[in-house]
Automatic annotation (TrEMBL):
<keyword id="KW-1133">Transmembrane helix</keyword>
<protein>
    <recommendedName>
        <fullName>DUF962 domain-containing protein</fullName>
    </recommendedName>
</protein>
<keyword id="KW-0472">Membrane</keyword>
<dbReference type="Pfam" id="PF06127">
    <property type="entry name" value="Mpo1-like"/>
</dbReference>
<keyword id="KW-0812">Transmembrane</keyword>
<feature type="transmembrane region" description="Helical">
    <location>
        <begin position="38"/>
        <end position="62"/>
    </location>
</feature>
<dbReference type="InterPro" id="IPR009305">
    <property type="entry name" value="Mpo1-like"/>
</dbReference>
Length: 114
């Protein structure tokens, strides 16, 4: 599939675009900490019915990761190809880090051999 063609499945996008674009450990840390901050501030905004806190959570979800791409990866190809899949990829990676399937610094944990 050519680089400009739309990716039909999230799995294909995640494997071929998202993971290679998030190889730098510092960028992975920025994404992980941004997701945690977004959860905290969006949660606080919802709990206290505070639009500024909720907006700060949204900014944490979008701002620092984009800066991480500019500073550490020198690319934002995943956002250019599909902003929705890029956001899903960020949350899926955070989920996999919590499950122990990925590392914040080293990417995917090695699979054990049967």
């Amino acid at each position: 599939m050519a680089s400009g063609e739309f990716r039909r499945s999230f799995g294909e996008f995640y494997e071929s675009i998202y993971l290679p674009d998030h190889a730098a450990p510092l960028n992975r840390w920025v994404h992980f900490l941004s997701n945690l901050s977004a959860l905290v501030f969006c949660g606080l905004g919802a709990w206290f019915l505070s639009l500024p806190l909720f907006a700060l959570g949204v900014w944490f979800q979008l701002g620092p990761p984009y800066l991480g791409h500019i500073l550490f990866e020198k690319t934002h190809r995943s956002i250019d190809q599909s902003p929705i899949f890029a956001a899903l990829g960020s949350w899926f990676t955070t989920y996999e880090i919590f499950r122990g399937r990925q590392s914040v610094t080293h990417g995917r944990a090695p699979k054990s051999k049967p």
